[in-house]
Amino acid sequence: MAGAVEKLASVRIKRNGQVVGLAKVKRVQREKELVDKVSAGTECGLMLDSDTPVKVGDKLDFFKQEEHIRKLEKKSSH
Q: What residues form DSSP beta bridges with 62?
């Protein structure tokens, strides 16, 4: 996801260098069109799902959480 903002990405809301909340990207809009992703440097509108209101001057760190499920197999003791 480097250099892009994607729908459903997770967001850290930082204020004065401290994480003050978390959010999830619900919608991404470029001009008047809803899109799934925009590249870095592209002006866009975002709708976030968060209990923490974003204020002017806040920094938003976007990241994607991936879950990897591994199956552990029992070794035989021969």
A: 11
